[in-house]
């Protein structure tokens, strides 16, 4: 079976919701084994409590913490991170910075890599975050998979939503919902399905 791992960092749960959609799409492809991991939190606990993030993170506290084996065991890895000033979150960057031994051995060469993200504003740097992330994946020799424009959500101009050809994204508009909208989640699901389909062709 082709192994697809979704590895994410989420502070308030928005990227976790996207990660679940990615995994749901990947699981639709028969002959794939899909797992979800989260990268370690680095923010001090008192700050997490003060910001409300500690409470929000309870919803995914059951998800196992990613380690280097979580990368090596997979044929395809879908990474999820919120955007921080047009780049990946520091927690994800720190996790990736521990992968030097894998780079030295070429452990990730030929594996599939794909990325999704979220921002709190419409022009918050979604595309730059994903493209910056791709640089690390290319250094590891990974095969990057995005989303083609035959995904209907990418061409929908009647609603404000995320989604790029580089990877799924969400715009988190503060309010009662405060979550990725259905278009964002459907694009994420489509990305997961596409990654799994390609992984099955290459490794299944």
UniProtKB/TrEMBL annotation:
EC id: 1.6.5.2
Cofactor: binding details: Binds 1 FMN per monomer.
Annotated catalysed reactions: a quinone + NADH + H(+) = a quinol + NAD(+); a quinone + NADPH + H(+) = a quinol + NADP(+)
Binding site for FMN: 10-15, 83-85, 139
One Pfam family hit: FMN_red
Keywords: Flavoprotein, FMN, NAD, NADP, Nucleotide-binding, Oxidoreductase
GO molecular function, one term: NAD binding
InterPro entries found in the cross-reference section: Flavodoxin/NO_synth, Flavoprotein-like_sf, Flavoprotein_WrbA-like, FMN_Rdtase-like_dom, NQO
Span of the signal peptide: none
Domain Flavodoxin-like: 4-196
EC main group: oxidoreductase
Any single Gene Ontology cellular-component annotation: membrane
Family: Belongs to the WrbA family.
Protein name in UniProt: NAD(P)H dehydrogenase (quinone)
Species in which this protein is naturally found: Petrotoga mobilis (strain DSM 10674 / SJ95)
């Amino acid at each position: 079976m082709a192994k697809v791992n979704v590895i994410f960092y989420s502070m308030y749960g928005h990227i976790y919701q996207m990660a679940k959609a990615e995994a749901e799409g990947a699981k639709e492809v028969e002959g794939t084994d899909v797992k979800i991991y989260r990268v370690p939190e680095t923010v001090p606990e008192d700050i997490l409590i003060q910001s409300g993030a500690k409470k929000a993170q309870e919803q995914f506290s059951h998800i196992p913490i990613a380690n280097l084996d979580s990368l090596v065991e997979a044929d395809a890895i879908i990474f999820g991170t919120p955007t921080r000033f047009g780049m990946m979150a520091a927690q994800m960057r720190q996790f990736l910075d521990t992968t030097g031994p894998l780079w030295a051995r070429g452990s990730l060469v030929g594996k599939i890599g794909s990325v999704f993200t979220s921002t709190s504003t419409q022009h918050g740097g979604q595309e730059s975050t994903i493209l910056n992330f791709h640089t690390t994946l290319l250094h590891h020799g990974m095969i990057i998979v995005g989303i083609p424009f035959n995904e209907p959500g990418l061409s929908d101009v009647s609603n404000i939503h995320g989604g790029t050809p580089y990877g799924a994204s969400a715009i988190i508009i503060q309010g009662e919902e405060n979550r990725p909208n259905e278009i964002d989640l459907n694009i994420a699901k489509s990305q997961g399905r596409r990654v799994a389909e390609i992984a099955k062709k290459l490794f299944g």
